[in-house]
Specification:
about 220 residues; alpha/beta; Metallo-beta-lactamase, Chain A; 6 helices; about 30% strand
Length: about 220
């Protein structure tokens, strides 16, 4: 089965966009990441235009806890009554609105980021369930399994679908060319995650958090 994927791309910063992906399945829709809260109206319009309305969105999957990927998770969860899922190592980010939680950031930089980049109280939430390596999401309506991909954040994950499609979050990007995303918290963990993907059989097209889809072999 080949997935029907609708990318929803909105502006981020420094002429870079951010992606979320609406996946149509036999039982409805699954949304991978939710974009920034300031783009809520645009994202809602694009979901509706794709045919995703309340009652049809079955699951919201989050690749990691950053504000540009989780900014609309609480809102869409309320609107669509769809469960949300995130890795346990990033849960503190969305519960507290603190993008530095569980990261190697300290001192003045932590304070500055904490003041500027955060989730507003209304956009904070606790996921309905947490994700871990090897979780099979088929029973939840998505023929895919979870791959832990720490590096950008400790709780970063990817979703590898049965047809070889990989949603990789912010481990990888394709802004100028495919490669590791420029914002990495733990370089050693990110490199290990990259090598893990190279050893994983069956990966075809990669859908990153930023930039265009690409073939894994093009890395």
């Amino acid at each position: 089965m080949t997935l029907e994927i609708t990318p929803i791309t909105t502006p981020f910063m420094f002429n870079v966009s951010v992606n979320c992906y609406l996946v149509r399945t036999d039982g409805g829709y699954v949304l991978v990441d939710t974009g920034r809260a300031v783009e809520r109206a645009v994202i809602s319009e694009r979901l509706a235009a794709a045919g995703c309305v309340p009652g049809t969105l079955k699951l919201i999957l989050l690749t990691h806890g950053d504000f540009d990927h989780c900014g609309n998770a609480a809102y869409l969860r309320r609107t669509f009554n769809a469960p949300t899922a995130l890795h346990a190592d990033d849960v503190g980010m969305v519960e507290r609105g603190d993008m530095t939680w569980n990261r190697h950031i300290g001192g003045l930089m932590k304070a500055l980021i904490g003041l500027i980049i955060r989730l507003k109280p209304a956009d904070r939430f606790t996921p309905d369930f947490t994700l871990r390596e090897g979780d099979d999401l088929t029973a939840r309506g998505f023929p895919a399994r979870v791959i832990e991909l720490p590096g950008h954040s400790k709780g970063s994950v990817g979703f590898l679908a049965a047809d070889g499609t990989l949603f990789c979050g912010d481990l990888l990007a394709n802004v100028d060319k495919p490669g590791l995303w420029s914002i990495i918290d733990d370089k050693a963990a990110a490199q290990a995650s990259l090598e893990k993907l190279k050893r994983t059989p069956g990966i075809g097209t990669v859908y990153p958090g930023h930039g265009q889809p690409f073939a894994l072999r093009d890395l």
